[in-house]
glucose-1-phosphate thymidylyltransferase
Amino acid sequence: MITKAILTGGGRATRLYPITSTINKHLLPLANKPMIFHAIEKVVDAGIKEIFINVNPGEEDLQKHIGDGGHWGVKIKFFEQTGGPQGIAHVVNEAKKFIGDDPFVFYLSDNILFGDVKEMIEEFNKGEHDCMLALSEVPDPNRFGVPVFDNVGNLIDVIEKPEVAPNNFAVTGIYLYGPKIFFEAFDNIEKSARGEYEISSIHSYFLKNNKKVGYKEITGWWKDTGKTEDLLLANRLLLEKTNNIIQVSPSCVYDDTVELIAPVIIGENCILKNCKIGPYVTIGQGSIIKNANIEDSILLSNVEIDCQITISDSLIGKGVKFLKKEERNKKHKLIVGDKTVIEF
């Protein structure tokens, strides 16, 4: 029975710069909750008791935000990925001392899944597979590991980011492994042309050595949040699942000059005046919003906006300020890093 999980917490997320130049991607808020919290909740709900999270060397932000797991009733430990980024298969191998001979889940924390993994783990626990993969149909499979099937639908290989994909399925970032099997495979693969130990090479090794590799298609919504538009879409859909609530912290200050359009979540100690917020907006704690319209956007903490501006489809970093310089009546699409000051 699987009771252990490895979650990713490292990497530099350069596709999300400049936001991720000063904040770990896995702490970016989705529905005003750090992204990695969604992954933790998924595996805890599936019966996981011990979680191991990799972090970048020297970083301590994840440890401060997540703690020891007591909040979720589990044990959480952190480990550094030594030797720099060498692929996600290398992340798993670095956790070998924690996993030992036990089966485990490997979950990429920047994957947002609306279904649960409980059913997948229950099926794996029946003992019919050495490995189980979660598949999802996508419009751009060449960005992912892609399964290869024979003429009767048997899984026969997995190839990483093919130029021409054999089908429209992607191997998502949820993997289940039986005892010892992963580490045996890791000792028998080599780095790819891009200098990484590919997780697809592990699965290809299994299939070529007669291991039982099963798969399950994800029926709920799944997204790899590698780009800004993916984050905004995930935030929007997570907010939709809240039954279109308007959630405002009791510590916020606002009056009848504020129009809130559901779904919206406003963090602690915010000040709102003469503004329209929503739909699909989350605002981090300590922010001040005046004279602005904001829709379909994520604002991190301590953002200050005091000008007549309409912001849409935007990701705004911590401590950003928008100061009034001149009146403009137009929408702006922005990806703004921490502590930026913008005058209009």
Summary: The first strand starts at residue 4 and ends at 7. The mean pLDDT is 89.
